[in-house]
Amino acid sequence: MFWSFCYLALRCVFQLALLRPRSEEFKELELVVLRHELSVLRRQAGRPRLTPVDRVFLAAASRLLPRSRWRSFLVTPTTLLRWHRRLVARRWTYPARVGRPAVGGEIRELVLRLARENPRWGYQRIVGELNGLGISVSATTVRKILRQAGLGPAGERSGLSWRTFLRAQAESMLAVDFFTVETISLQRLYVLFFIELGSRRVHLAGCTANPTGAWVTQQARQFAWRLQERPSPFRFLIRDRDSKFTRDFDAVCASQGIAIIKTPVRAPKANAIAERFVRTVRAECLDWLLITNQRHLERVLRIFVDHYNSHRPHRSLNLAPPEPSEKRVGAVRSSNRRCRAARPTRRRHPRIQPRRMRLSLRTLHAWMARICESTTVGFQGMSHSSSCGRSPFTYDTIVRYGHRSQGLRRL
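-> structure tokens emitted (411 positions)
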């Protein structure tokens, strides 16, 4: 170890001794050669990874050289200046000041939930609701959170969609529409129906081969007469822009206090519940039958509508029909009572199993002989009574035989 250190020290002394007598021209030539080698290495190798010590050295050396000589460094002048500013900033850095605390994730989720579930609430309304919960947030913070989530102000979020409108007004809304049926003779029949959006109850208005405005108005007038028995009146009726719905049709609805809502052009989703019923009646009934004429179609639809309203379960009604019949309600209640009153079955011992008896004709004949011998009626009396035309087996005798046969089985 000692000799190695001496060797290195001697080499350094020799290098210093040889460096002094060198001229300035030799040093310049050596620098040119080193720069050329550096450029060759830059073309072949990638970007070098510098350590913090390397950055400090290069940044300090750059302040001692003129700007024209900075090309000899591995980095650009902009990088050197940035490193130098960073070193100065670290030297004169003061403790960080305590500013406004960041908004927590729970508060952010609560603000977004309030904005999405209440699209008509503005920034100040959301701030007020949060203050009621004991959360102090400014309107600017609420605005920033909503912007980051892609939610605009109340004017942009309060656009009323069809789904929101239908859910809020479903109990007081009706929908009307047509659907067509092709008969065996390729005759096209038109079916007019009304459907309640809240209860999904369907009212079959009528069928015809030539639907005119007068016919549609008459069907609406007959349907309006049936609505007078309803305790809570309807307020809105959704229909498309078909020419068969004339002004007289709208006047009949207006006389019952029902406002007309027209769907947009070529927008079947605006009347989605009626379209869904059309799909149901086709998939569950009409696609499996051959319709002969208008009378046949009316009878089939009347039966299916009765099944649809009183028995068929609906997902929007928690698998309940629009008008459950009394028989079905009674059956469900009785089944629930039976399930509640049903006793648990007695569990038998695994080693004690009931024995299954296989009776032959000889065994049955012997049992019948014992039964007849134990009674006042014998085989002779049986033959005698049968010959006289009277049967010896009365109701009491048959019951007594049955009880005795059960006792023999137990034996």
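The two ends are 113 Å apart (CA to CA).
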